[in-house]
Write a structure and sequence with these properties.
This protein has three domains: about 5-125 and about 135-195, Four Helix Bundle (Hemerythrin (Met), subunit A) (Up-down Bundle), CATH 1.20.120; about 235-320, Orthogonal Bundle (Helix Hairpins), CATH 1.10.287.130; about 325-499, Heat Shock Protein 90, CATH 3.30.565. The protein is built from ten helices and seven strands. The protein has helices spanning about 5-70, 75-95, 100-125, 140-220, 235-280, 290-320, 335-350, 370-385, 410-415, 465-475, and strands at about 330, 355-360, 365-370, 395-405, 420-430, 480-485, 490-499. The protein has a five-stranded mixed sheet with strand order 2-4-5-7-6. Strands 1-3 form a two-stranded antiparallel sheet. Helix 1 packs antiparallel against helix 4 (about 140-220). It is rod-shaped and about 175 Å long.
């Protein structure tokens, strides 16, 4: 499934849930409004009808007493009117009653009233009325009034109970709505979180793989391949990425083969040319004048540099092919360094450069390949001689340290053996008085074909392979090599071995 389809479906589902929640909330609000409006209207009518009935009942009782106490036609007329009004009130109450309990109470009230009303009507038809003494009703009618008043109060209480029940139902409905809404909100948030999590996983993992692959390609690991088993846009991208890396791998292999073959084929004719120049300089074919000797000497120097360049190219090819061989055994690092200093002393003397050494008297043995270690030291010391001004000094120092140097770069730290970076180390320091290395170039100078800018390029400066090979050799020894500023001006190179 495509990533865009997943995002659309996921957030479409979340949007549908939110719309359902909104619709449910609107429906509940409308329902609550309807319940409240109905309760208000019905309660008002019921209460008004009940109060009106209670008022008319009191008037009926009052004028019934007066009519029995005083045989007055005016009182009888008013009694008839209030009896009619009370009857109408009962009908009104019954029409507005909602609950079954309230209707039953009103029905019992109507039955009792009908009985009392018939007695009152019968007493009015008598030709001779018995006048009560002290404004008192006859015992039977008085009991009916008492019973009717109690029933009327029961109707009122039933009406109040029905109102309370409806209010309580409205409250429970609101609480249920709030509970459902809260639970639904939590569910929606959980679903939204899950959708976002799965979308994040479906995007972040292939992006991380693509980032890792891009970093690997930048490091020259053209064999890296991405997973193409997915069925989305990242799968198409992975296939294109793999096709690109395959092509880069082919081109890189072609370049390595070309360099290796050309370097190897150049060694033989170059060796013949150098030998021929040496023979001519030895004047075996015949004497040479000063100009001819100078030209041949320049050719010999160029041949030496070309031989060194071809050797570096071959070393680089073997390193990249993973076939560089190292013979690791215990060597006296001080003795190796003395040999290198003696070897480069002649070159330094030609430029009036003095090499000062500070070597310990005791032996410092390290597990290393002697020839490759000499190659590293020769490269560093030769560069120091090249870039140092005439009549300056180069300091070479060897010491043992109990811990890693503070200025050791993080990139160099990764190549040191083991998780425990404490113990004894052998540190070689080569300090010159040259132009120095800019901060931005101190790690780049160990990359292939990279050269720091020092103004105008010096003759014989090289192709930028020597330090890259030194870095490879030190990584194979689980050591480190790096550059820093020389406090006295110039550059300072460090070579670190585990003792």
């Amino acid at each position: 499934m495509k990533i865009t389809t997943r995002i659309s479906l996921g957030y479409g589902l979340l949007l549908a849930i939110l719309l359902c929640l909104a619709a449910y909330q609107v429906l509940i609000i409308k329902r609550m409004q309807s319940i409240n409006r109905t309760v208000a209207e019905m309660d008002f009518r019921n209460s008004l009808a009940c109060i009106e009935a209670m008022r008319n009942f009191d008037l009926v009782e009052e004028y019934a007493r007066k009519s029995f106490a005083l045989d007055d036609t005016d009182y009888l007329t008013l009694l008839r009117e209030y009896r009619r009004d009370f009857t109408a009130d009962l009908r009104n109450m019954k029409s507005h009653a909602t609950g079954g309990g309230v209707k039953d109470e009103i029905d019992r009230l109507i039955v009792q009233w009908d009985a009392l009303n018939q007695r009152l009507a019968a007493s009015e038809r008598r030709e001779t009325r018995v006048v009560s003494v002290g404004n008192a009703l006859p015992e039977s009618i008085w009991q009916d009034f008492e019973s009717l008043g109690a029933q009327l109060r029961s109707v009122y209480q039933a009406n109040i109970g029905a109102m309370s029940l409806r209010v309580d139902n409205a409250r429970r409905t609101g609480e249920t709505a709030a509970l459902v809404l809260g639970f639904s909100t939590l569910v929606a948030v959980a679903i939204g979180g899950l959708i976002s999590f799965f979308i994040y996983r479906s995007i972040s993992k292939p992006l991380a793989n693509l980032t890792e692959g891009t970093r690997a390609i930048a490091e020259g690991k053209f064999f890296y391949r991405l997973d193409t088993s997915r069925k989305d846009e990242f799968s198409h991208l992975a296939r294109d990425f793999n096709a690109m890396t395959r092509r880069l791998d082919e081109l890189d292999q072609m370049k390595k083969d070309f360099v290796a073959h050309v370097s190897h084929e150049l060694k033989s004719p170059l060796a013949s040319m150098r030998e021929t120049i040496e023979i001519m300089l030895d004047e075996i074919p015949g004497p040479l004048n000063e100009k001819q000797r100078r030209l041949l000497d320049l050719n010999r120097q160029s041949g030496t540099r070309l031989t060194a360049l071809i050797g570096n190219l071959l070393d680089l090819s073997r390193t990249e092919a993973g076939v560089m061989e190292y013979e690791l055994k215990a060597h006296n690092l001080v003795a190796l360094a003395r040999d290198v200093v003696e070897e480069t002393a002649v070159q330094a003397l030609e430029r009036d450069i003095r090499i000062r050494t500070s070597f310990p008297e005791k032996t410092i043995e390290v597990e290393c390949d002697g020839d490759r270690t000499i190659q590293v030291l020769v490269n560093i010391l030769t560069n120091a001689v090249k870039f140092s001004p005439k009549s300056s000094e180069i300091d070479v120092r060897i010491e043992t340290v109990g811990d890693l140097p503070e200025n050791l770069p993080a990139s160099a730290l990764a190549s040191i053996t083991g998780s425990e970076h404490s113990g004894n180390f052998a540190l070689i320091t080569v300090s010159d008085r040259g132009p120095g290395i800019p901060q931005a170039d101190r790690e780049k100078i160990f990359e292939k074909f990279y050269q720091a800018e020092h103004g105008k390029k010096a003759p014989g400066q090289g192709a930028g392979l020597g330090l890259a090979i030194c870095m490879t050799i030190m990584q194979a020894h689980r050591g480190a090599i790096w550059a820093d500023d020389n406090p006295g001006g110039g550059s300072r190179f460090y070579v670190l071995f585990k003792v």
